[in-house]
Amino acid sequence: xxxxCTEYDFDSxxxxxxxxxxxxRGIIPADRYSEPYMSYGYLQHELTAGVxxxxxxxxxxxxxxxxxxxxxxxxxxxxAYVRTSYQNQGIGxxxxxxxxxxxxxxxxxxxxxxxxxxxRFYEKxxxxxxxxxxxxxxxxxxxxxxxxxxQTSVVLADQKWFDLQSGG
Length: 168
Prior knowledge:
This protein is of the alpha+beta class.
């Protein structure tokens, strides 16, 4: 079941993100990985900044989360994570499909350049990588991340974004 998260889900969101993010160990640059991957403080910062989390539950337990955030003229998909023991069961696909019904705006997602599995996941749902130069501009305009993260990340966009860029 997919549902909107509430303030009471904070610990479950935190635990889900940090469980799933262990997959990044050894894949993303070592200077960008930490335990926990996302601190309580940063999660609170993201919520305060307007990231709205949705959860996928199994037997009353949150096993996947994905955030959505409207920034300026686009929607960002943020912090998409499925607990390790529930990965490859279609949960991420259900979450992103649901979130895409919530917006009519061009949608962007950022992820680590080395996270090939994450890139392939987003491509499966219609997102495409933007050019490197455009990625740099988009990350600086729509995200608040450290320069090192900008250097080691990619941005994928949905068809609505590409249509706007081509004047369509």
